[in-house]
Amino acid sequence: MVRRIPRRAYEEVTFLEAQVVSYRMDERDGGMWKLTFYVDDTEDAQWLFNCYPRTTVAMGIKALDYDNPDQSDVVTEGERTLKRAAMLCRNMKFQRWLENYTAEAGTYRWGVGQDEQECVKALHSTLDIKSRSELKTNQSKIKLFTELVDEFQAWLKSQ
Predict the structure, then answer these.
(1) What distances in angstroms separate CA 54 from CA 15, 32, 45, 133, one per listed residue?
(2) pTM, two decimal places
(3) Across 121-148, average pLDDT
(4) For a tag on the chain, would you pick the N or C end, based on fewer CB atoms within 10 A?
Protein backbone atom coordinates (compact mmCIF):
# COMPACT_ATOMS: atom_id res chain seq x y z
CA MET A 1 0.00 0.00 0.00
CA VAL A 2 1.39 3.37 -1.00
CA ARG A 3 1.79 5.81 1.87
CA ARG A 4 0.80 9.31 0.82
CA ILE A 5 2.32 12.44 2.27
CA PRO A 6 -0.55 14.80 3.16
CA ARG A 7 -0.92 18.08 1.29
CA ARG A 8 -0.26 20.15 4.43
CA ALA A 9 3.30 18.79 4.46
CA TYR A 10 3.88 20.77 1.26
CA GLU A 11 2.07 23.89 2.47
CA GLU A 12 2.99 24.28 6.14
CA VAL A 13 6.34 24.60 7.86
CA THR A 14 7.18 21.89 10.38
CA PHE A 15 9.57 22.82 13.18
CA LEU A 16 11.74 20.00 14.53
CA GLU A 17 14.95 19.61 16.44
CA ALA A 18 17.62 17.31 15.09
CA GLN A 19 21.13 16.29 15.98
CA VAL A 20 23.89 15.54 13.49
CA VAL A 21 24.82 11.89 14.00
CA SER A 22 27.43 11.52 11.30
CA TYR A 23 28.60 12.92 8.02
CA ARG A 24 30.84 11.84 5.19
CA MET A 25 32.22 14.26 2.65
CA ASP A 26 33.07 13.05 -0.83
CA GLU A 27 34.39 15.02 -3.79
CA ARG A 28 32.22 13.09 -6.26
CA ASP A 29 28.74 13.49 -4.78
CA GLY A 30 29.28 16.09 -2.06
CA GLY A 31 28.74 13.72 0.80
CA MET A 32 25.96 12.71 3.14
CA TRP A 33 24.68 13.94 6.53
CA LYS A 34 22.71 11.75 8.92
CA LEU A 35 20.40 13.49 11.37
CA THR A 36 18.44 12.18 14.32
CA PHE A 37 15.18 14.05 14.89
CA TYR A 38 13.82 14.67 18.34
CA VAL A 39 10.13 15.38 18.10
CA ASP A 40 8.48 16.54 21.31
CA ASP A 41 5.14 17.29 19.72
CA THR A 42 4.61 14.94 16.78
CA GLU A 43 1.40 16.66 15.74
CA ASP A 44 3.22 18.93 13.25
CA ALA A 45 5.52 16.14 12.14
CA GLN A 46 3.02 13.30 11.71
CA TRP A 47 3.52 13.40 7.94
CA LEU A 48 7.14 12.25 8.39
CA PHE A 49 5.82 8.84 9.43
CA ASN A 50 4.37 8.46 5.92
CA CYS A 51 7.76 8.94 4.25
CA TYR A 52 9.56 5.88 2.99
CA PRO A 53 13.28 5.65 3.67
CA ARG A 54 15.24 7.77 1.18
CA THR A 55 12.27 10.07 0.55
CA THR A 56 13.61 13.46 -0.47
CA VAL A 57 12.43 16.40 1.63
CA ALA A 58 13.48 20.05 1.55
CA MET A 59 14.82 21.48 4.79
CA GLY A 60 15.94 24.76 6.22
CA ILE A 61 18.49 24.26 8.96
CA LYS A 62 19.57 26.60 11.74
CA ALA A 63 22.15 25.76 14.39
CA LEU A 64 21.06 26.28 17.99
CA ASP A 65 23.45 27.51 20.63
CA TYR A 66 21.91 26.39 23.89
CA ASP A 67 24.60 28.15 25.95
CA ASN A 68 24.12 31.55 24.28
CA PRO A 69 20.64 31.81 22.86
CA ASP A 70 20.07 34.82 20.62
CA GLN A 71 16.80 36.32 21.79
CA SER A 72 16.51 38.55 18.71
CA ASP A 73 15.65 35.53 16.56
CA VAL A 74 12.87 34.25 18.79
CA VAL A 75 9.70 34.01 16.73
CA THR A 76 6.58 34.88 18.68
CA GLU A 77 3.18 33.31 18.26
CA GLY A 78 1.97 36.56 16.73
CA GLU A 79 4.73 36.58 14.11
CA ARG A 80 3.95 32.97 13.18
CA THR A 81 0.27 33.85 12.92
CA LEU A 82 1.05 36.83 10.70
CA LYS A 83 3.15 34.68 8.36
CA ARG A 84 0.47 32.00 8.29
CA ALA A 85 -2.19 34.57 7.42
CA ALA A 86 -0.05 35.88 4.56
CA MET A 87 0.54 32.36 3.22
CA LEU A 88 -3.12 31.39 3.49
CA CYS A 89 -4.25 34.51 1.62
CA ARG A 90 -2.15 33.25 -1.34
CA ASN A 91 -3.70 29.77 -1.12
CA MET A 92 -6.45 29.34 -3.73
CA LYS A 93 -8.41 26.85 -1.63
CA PHE A 94 -8.41 29.21 1.32
CA GLN A 95 -9.50 32.07 -0.95
CA ARG A 96 -12.48 30.06 -2.24
CA TRP A 97 -13.39 28.86 1.24
CA LEU A 98 -13.19 32.38 2.72
CA GLU A 99 -15.28 33.75 -0.13
CA ASN A 100 -18.06 31.25 0.68
CA TYR A 101 -17.60 31.69 4.43
CA THR A 102 -17.96 35.48 4.29
CA ALA A 103 -20.90 35.25 1.87
CA GLU A 104 -22.77 32.92 4.24
CA ALA A 105 -21.93 35.05 7.29
CA GLY A 106 -22.69 38.29 5.45
CA THR A 107 -19.48 39.87 6.74
CA TYR A 108 -17.89 40.75 3.41
CA ARG A 109 -18.96 40.91 -0.20
CA TRP A 110 -16.23 39.60 -2.46
CA GLY A 111 -15.37 42.08 -5.19
CA VAL A 112 -13.74 41.78 -8.57
CA GLY A 113 -9.98 41.86 -8.66
CA GLN A 114 -7.04 39.79 -7.66
CA ASP A 115 -8.10 36.99 -5.36
CA GLU A 116 -5.23 37.50 -2.89
CA GLN A 117 -6.15 41.15 -2.35
CA GLU A 118 -9.83 40.32 -1.95
CA CYS A 119 -8.92 37.53 0.46
CA VAL A 120 -6.93 39.99 2.57
CA LYS A 121 -9.87 42.41 2.62
CA ALA A 122 -12.27 39.61 3.56
CA LEU A 123 -9.91 38.46 6.32
CA HIS A 124 -9.74 42.03 7.67
CA SER A 125 -13.53 42.23 7.67
CA THR A 126 -14.01 38.80 9.25
CA LEU A 127 -11.47 39.38 12.03
CA ASP A 128 -12.40 43.07 12.41
CA ILE A 129 -8.84 44.28 11.93
CA LYS A 130 -7.36 47.13 9.91
CA SER A 131 -4.14 45.32 9.04
CA ARG A 132 -2.81 41.78 9.30
CA SER A 133 0.02 43.19 11.43
CA GLU A 134 -2.52 43.39 14.29
CA LEU A 135 -2.16 39.60 14.44
CA LYS A 136 1.35 40.09 15.86
CA THR A 137 0.19 41.53 19.17
CA ASN A 138 -3.57 41.15 19.65
CA GLN A 139 -4.19 37.82 21.40
CA SER A 140 -7.95 37.88 20.88
CA LYS A 141 -7.46 38.34 17.11
CA ILE A 142 -4.87 35.56 17.08
CA LYS A 143 -7.44 33.29 18.74
CA LEU A 144 -10.13 34.29 16.21
CA PHE A 145 -7.74 33.62 13.33
CA THR A 146 -6.79 30.24 14.78
CA GLU A 147 -10.46 29.28 15.05
CA LEU A 148 -11.01 30.42 11.46
CA VAL A 149 -8.09 28.29 10.28
CA ASP A 150 -9.47 25.31 12.24
CA GLU A 151 -12.79 25.69 10.41
CA PHE A 152 -10.94 25.88 7.10
CA GLN A 153 -8.96 22.72 7.90
CA ALA A 154 -12.16 20.90 8.90
CA TRP A 155 -13.66 21.94 5.56
CA LEU A 156 -10.55 20.65 3.74
CA LYS A 157 -10.88 17.27 5.44
CA SER A 158 -14.52 17.02 4.37
CA GLN A 159 -13.64 17.57 0.70
Answers:
(1) 20, 12, 17, 40
(2) 0.54
(3) 90
(4) N
